[in-house]
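Re: weekly structure request thread

Next one in the queue (140 aa):
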Amino acid sequence: MSYLEAHQSKFPEHIYEFAADESRHDLQSPHSLHDSWLSSLSIKEARNTSSETAWPSIELILLGQMHDRNINLIYTKVHSYKVVGTKNLYNWADTFHGDIDAHNITLGSPVTFVHEISFVSGSKILIEFEGFQCTEVACT
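Done, posted below.
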């Protein structure tokens, strides 16, 4: 949190609010990414005649830790990404990646931000992006 506070002026308000929101890290909060499971990861590249619109976008859908909601993370104008998958040795028959162990958003280049998500299994997702949106959808 001290990193975020020290660099708050460099983050757009909505990205700072997500990154600094304690409920996104609180083990007792249904909004926490901690202990969530990866449901899907989609990478899209819009192909138009304009190179201005050819930026990739990435959508992660996470099953919330209380299994009562999906947490949708959408990254736009993606500059780079890295996905490393490692079988979950603790419970490989249940999930490949396992629970999210930690996540943080830091500054990338002067116009980008980096979201790093680490899983209990050792899997990692690293996304460098310009645009970001988070929504939640209740599981019914």
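The chain has a mean pLDDT of 92. The chain has two helices and eight strands.
Next request, please.
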